Amino acid sequence: MNLNVEMEHQRHVLIVRLSGELDHHTADLVRMQMDEAIQRRQTEHLILSFKELEFMDSSGLGVILGRYKFIKQKGGKMAVCDVKPAVYRLLEMSGLFKIMPIYENEGTALSGLEVVS
């Protein structure tokens, strides 16, 4: 299975929607696409939507943590939303939720990051 990446900017927020599998085969491509999008636009905050993400391994965790550090250095916030149970378990076991919030959907993530007008 492949990975599909959809990105949308809303003001200074980059919303990244991932579908498929985020693993060692796709991690580098996703990392490059996200970094380019963050640098190209005035991105302050990042929301990762995993509504259609079926699988993630430790390479995917590396992508998430790297983008978290990048956004944090810029003074921004990052969150994840729409996480399926299998991916949720991996994120929980990794301790990710100790450093960034999880939200039910994109709307609550935008509200939770206090970036809604």
Task: Describe the model.
Helix content is 40%, strand content 31%. With 117 residues, the chain is of the alpha/beta class. It has one domain: Transcription Regulator spoIIAA. Helix 1 runs parallel beside helix 2. The protein starts with a strand and ends in a 5-residue tail after the last helix. The mean pLDDT is 94.
Keywords:
4 helices, Anti-sigma F factor antagonist, STAS_dom, alpha/beta, five-stranded mixed sheet, sporulation, phosphoprotein, Anti-sigma_ant, 117 residues
Quick structural gist:
The chain is of the alpha/beta class. The chain is 40% helix and 31% strand.
Which radius of gyration do the C-alpha atoms yield?
13 Å
Low-pLDDT parts are none
CATH class, named Alpha Beta
CATH hierarchy: architecture: 2-Layer Sandwich
Q: H/E series, N to C?
A: EEHEHEHEH
- Number of separate domains: 1
Helix count equals: 4
The named CATH superfamily: STAS domain
Broad structural category? alpha/beta
Major sheet: size, sense and barrel closure? 5 strands, mixed
Task: Categorize the overall geometry.
Answer: globular
Helix content: 40-55%
Mean pLDDT: 94
Tell me how many strands there are.
5
| Percent of residues in β-strands | 25-35%
Sheet with the most strands: spatial strand order:
1-2-3-4-5
CATH T-level fold name: Transcription Regulator spoIIAA
Distance between the termini: 38 Å
What is this structure's SSE topology?
Blueprint: E1 3-10, E2 13-22, H1 27-40, E3 45-56, H2 58-73, E4 78-81, H3 85-94, E5 102-103, H4 106-112
